[in-house]
Design goal:
This protein has two domains: about 130 residues, Leucine-rich repeat, LRR (right-handed beta-alpha superhelix); about 170 residues, Ribonuclease Inhibitor (Leucine-rich repeat, LRR (right-handed beta-alpha superhelix), Alpha-Beta Horseshoe). It is built from seven helices and 15 strands. The strands form three sheets. It has a ten-stranded mixed β-sheet with strand order 1-2-3-5-7-9-10-11-12-13, with no helix packed on it. Strands 4-6-8 form a three-stranded parallel β-sheet. α4 crosses α5. The longest helix has about 45 residues. The chain is elongated and about 125 Å long. It starts with a helix and ends with a helix. One of its GO terms (biological process) is dorsal/ventral axis specification. Keywords: Leucine-rich repeat, Membrane, Repeat, Signal, Transmembrane, Transmembrane helix.
Length: about 375
Amino acid sequence: MLELAQRMVLCALVCSIYARASCPPGCECSEAAHTVKCVSKELQTIPKGIPGYTRNLFITGNNISRIGPTCFQGLDNVTNLSLSNNRITEVESNTFADLRALRYLDLSSNQLTAIHQEGFSMHNHTLRELNLSRALYNHSAVTDLAAALRQASLGSLQGLDLSGNGLVLLPPRTFSRLGQLRRLQLSNNSLVAIHNATFWGLQRLEELDLTFNALKGVPEEGLRELDALPVASGLLLGDNPFDCTCAIEPLALWLNRSRDRVRDTEAPSCASPATMRNVTLLAAATLTLRCYQRAAGADLALQTSYVFLGLVLGLVGLVFLFVLYLNRKGIKKRVNEARDACREVWEGYHYRYEIDSDPRLSQVSSNADA
């Protein structure tokens, strides 16, 4: 019995030594929790020899510049992969293709400048959550991401976080292949407009966060885009610098009739003009109607002015014609005198022309003058 106990202790010791030996340098491995952590170890590349039992893999706070398809080979059991804050600039094609069980991918707080068109292509439709907050470094990365999302097989993706990326405009149909997406985070960007086809294809989207952007208004085209999200009931529009001039009326009226879809209906408020600052859009809906009434009154006044001007000009014309009628005899006499004067001048020029054209008449005229 004692010998059996010694053997068991020896096996446990050997297994623990083997487990520690199989853990990559700079990482902490827990077979019981199926977790490997390589945190803030100044790693330059994804470490080799990560145990095959790993389900939760945290490689964060390092100096890894690029990741490719050879980085995660043999890790079929990984379901949660966090690569945040690694200064990653490039994602190569098929980087995550071997992660056949991957459900959650975190690439937040990186410096992505290049995402290959097949950077997010995966063999299985397993990925549910993709975190790219504060991950895109410039506009070219946004264009690359749009192309990668349209190319990737992410038909099961349910959550996408693009917050904090300085986005100004989203390319049309960026999310057209994400038919199962339910949550889209676009907060803390610089979005200035919602255009046609911005959210095309998101038929199952339930939550859309547009807070802390640069929206001064949403035109009717953008409102139709929001109305095209059939099941969305968690829209957030607060903390945008809305310009509450007459053009805000379509958005204000839409907000009033969409209370069941907009979660923060009381939050969207006016940032300008100064007289409207901090007034909610719900209240601005009635105020802007007055603006349009004033505009309609101004149009009516302008039309009245045109009618009055036409009447005045017509009256002046009648007076002018009446004056001509009263002076018709004098005018006729002056016209006849002017006609006779012109005729005499014309005959004089004609006679002179005949003399100049005939040398004999010219000589007779000269002798007569002598």
